[in-house]
Amino acid sequence: MRAKIFILIFTLGIFLRVFLLDEESLWLDEGTSLKIAKLKTLEIVKLESDANPPLYYLILHFWIKIFGDSEFSVRFPSVIFGSATIFIVFKLLSSFDREVALLSSLLTSISTFLVFYSQEARAYSLFLMISTLSYLFLLEALKRGEMKFFIFYTLSVVLMLYTHIYSFFIVFSHIVFVLLCYANRIKKFSFFFSLSLLFYIPRAIVVLNQAKKIVSQGFWLPRPSFVDIGKTLIQFSGATYPMPRDEAGNVILKSFIIEYSSSAILLFILGVLIFVLHLNFKRVNPERRKFIFMLWIWFLSPIILPFILSQFLTPFYFTRYAIPSSVAFYMLASMGIEFVRKEFKDIILVLVFVLSVVNLVWYYAKTNKEQWREVAKFVEERIEENDLIVASKYVFYYYFKRTDVRTFSFQDLSGEEAEKHIRYFLSIVGGYKRIWFVSSHPWEVEGIALENLKRLMNLNSRKRFLGIEIFLFERRD
């Protein structure tokens, strides 16, 4: 019976991840994924301009060679990774309690947060899957002491390190867990762990070069506050961004309260369940205590460690980077429910399911990603002969199909190179009656160019899309 229930949960998870997969256009970061995936394999491996390790891009590289680069195809690997995580979560908990395993897999299956990143052509879903797999293999290796599980663990750590930089926080939690709970396995663990680090040496050289650049030039993230941790937890509970805003960009308070109340209530319920688990911690057997401790350091490490480091170093705390923490959060809550009285248990389960469904409805109903498809269509339908389009992001050209018009792209330059770039741009604008300027996540050089256009030409119109603005300039006669 439980096997059939899991199959239903797993099928539901796949459906939620495939549903409306290509409804929204690729956004900036997804366009970057596609751009990098179209490079040669050696170029992907050596790439230093992108902060992410190459594994996801290599997978996507070979995937699009076989299945093409449509929105559905580009996002589908993330569907696979996200769906596989549901199974891994179930497997991880099955040896302790099948009912808890079912509830954890259900929370993973219907999590709006995880559905969102299972529908995005980025490495987060892959990172989630491999990090969860690493805990599964680590636990099996420590409990059984068998060589094959240590080998599987080593392989999972290597793959994880080549997926996301936050892998180091996961690895840190592994070390703490082994030292405090399985000291008798420390020699064997140390050998295989060291082996995984040896395989990372080629990548470490690239990371050091990137770190030097980040230290000298800074990173795009602001220094986090405790509010950001709250935002992380409410996103784990189903809140999605962007917040509802009016045409002027102001948050619509009524819509915000309606949309985010279900996530806040769900966060409260899950938090209470985790607190109940904490109150009953001494009642569980030693093996389960070890497992609960593992879940706690799994949950906290990718949140607390980067948060603390971001107070002293270049800030790099971001909720989506901490995606592995979410499944540990769901598992802790699932383990807490077994200590709830029977008459309340069913009510809580129904509430959790209903609130999760409400969050999913909000997610599917609203626009979540930048509207590059709509922007390209808007420009294509209105552009005239001898117009110039200024668009610097790759994803715009993924959608813009006209080849009979002149386009110009800025590069992310600074110093003298940026000045030369701007001077060249300003030298050619006089030859065009109208200029379409597509702005999104503008580099410094783009911002300077835009200000110069406002000074030299008349601003005819300005159109806002989610995450993107279009400026139409006309020459002064």
TrEMBL record:
<feature type="transmembrane region" description="Helical">
    <location>
        <begin position="321"/>
        <end position="340"/>
    </location>
</feature>
<keyword id="KW-1003">Cell membrane</keyword>
<feature type="transmembrane region" description="Helical">
    <location>
        <begin position="291"/>
        <end position="309"/>
    </location>
</feature>
<dbReference type="GO" id="GO:0016763">
    <property type="term" value="F:pentosyltransferase activity"/>
</dbReference>
<keyword id="KW-0808">Transferase</keyword>
<dbReference type="Pfam" id="PF13231">
    <property type="entry name" value="PMT_2"/>
</dbReference>
<feature type="transmembrane region" description="Helical">
    <location>
        <begin position="149"/>
        <end position="177"/>
    </location>
</feature>
<keyword id="KW-0812">Transmembrane</keyword>
<dbReference type="GO" id="GO:0005886">
    <property type="term" value="C:plasma membrane"/>
</dbReference>
<feature type="transmembrane region" description="Helical">
    <location>
        <begin position="260"/>
        <end position="279"/>
    </location>
</feature>
<feature type="transmembrane region" description="Helical">
    <location>
        <begin position="100"/>
        <end position="117"/>
    </location>
</feature>
<feature type="transmembrane region" description="Helical">
    <location>
        <begin position="347"/>
        <end position="365"/>
    </location>
</feature>
<feature type="transmembrane region" description="Helical">
    <location>
        <begin position="123"/>
        <end position="142"/>
    </location>
</feature>
<keyword id="KW-1133">Transmembrane helix</keyword>
<keyword id="KW-0472">Membrane</keyword>
<dbReference type="GO" id="GO:0010041">
    <property type="term" value="P:response to iron(III) ion"/>
</dbReference>
<dbReference type="InterPro" id="IPR050297">
    <property type="entry name" value="LipidA_mod_glycosyltrf_83"/>
</dbReference>
<keyword id="KW-0328">Glycosyltransferase</keyword>
<protein>
    <submittedName>
        <fullName>Dolichyl-phosphate-mannose-protein mannosyltransferase</fullName>
    </submittedName>
</protein>
<dbReference type="InterPro" id="IPR038731">
    <property type="entry name" value="RgtA/B/C-like"/>
</dbReference>
<dbReference type="GO" id="GO:0009103">
    <property type="term" value="P:lipopolysaccharide biosynthetic process"/>
</dbReference>
<feature type="domain" description="Glycosyltransferase RgtA/B/C/D-like">
    <location>
        <begin position="52"/>
        <end position="199"/>
    </location>
</feature>
<feature type="transmembrane region" description="Helical">
    <location>
        <begin position="189"/>
        <end position="208"/>
    </location>
</feature>
